[in-house]
Amino acid sequence: LGADRFTLQVLGYRDGYFPADWSGIKRSVDDLSRAVDGDLVFTHAGSDLHQDHRTLSELTWNHFRSHTILEYEIVKYDGNLGPVSLFVPLSQEQLARKVDALMTSFESQTRKAWFTRSTFEAIARLRGVESGLRRCARPPASCGRIVRRPRGCLRMRQGDERNGTDDGGEH
Predict the structure, then answer these.
(1) Which of 62, 64, 82, 63 is nearest to 72 (CA)?
(2) Which of 34, 61, 77, 153 has its CA 20 to 30 A from that of 168?
(3) Could you tell me the CA-to-CA distances from 146 to 59, 127, 142 in Å, in that order?
């Protein structure tokens, strides 16, 4: 959805066991944070009930401290969709492209009953209602707070609950 180029790297960690493989995954995320300098980092919501997703979210915040980080929610059986603080309106065409990308990019999920076009469209519309925007058709990203960086860019950063500090400074 707009990326001209990207590199996909699949590592051999066991599905469902990320907390047990913490040190290896931490090393991999640290290596990644040293190898790339993106403008924006996406990660799972820190409140995600899936242990692998929570692990990656926490490590993302630990290793990409000077980046703009947005957390995203995932619809699933756990039912842990929570409140969000950032809404980005999408046109119907943009929503259709997003759902198309989801449906073709996550083949492993297509066997799950909840992984349907109508589910993603419904969540987008619900979040649109929450946003108060008439034309918001996109599930939002979430952020802890927005901190203005010296260069005039915006940076998302969690406070106390994420890294034990709320001093507003760079870490």
Answers:
(1) 82
(2) 34
(3) 19, 20, 11
Token pair, residue 100, equals 């198309």
* In the chain, alpha helices (H): 22-35, 51-63, 92-105, 117-131, 160-163
Backbone angles phi, psi at 104, to 5 degrees: -95, -15
Q: Are 49 and 78 in contact (CB under 8 A)?
A: yes
According to DSSP, the β-strands at 68-72 and 40-44 are parallel
Considering only CA atoms, give the Rg of the chain. 17
Read off the pTM. Answer: 0.70
pLDDT, average across residues 44-57 = 92
pLDDT, average across residues 70-99:
85
Q: Please name which of 46, 29, 30, 40 lies closest in space to residue 6, comparing C-alpha atoms.
A: 40
Residue 35: C-alpha distances to residues 27, 28, 127 (Å): 12, 11, 35
Range among 67-71, 125-129, 149-153 with highest mean pLDDT value: 67-71
Q: Which of 10, 15, 11, 12 is nearest to 109 (CA)?
A: 15
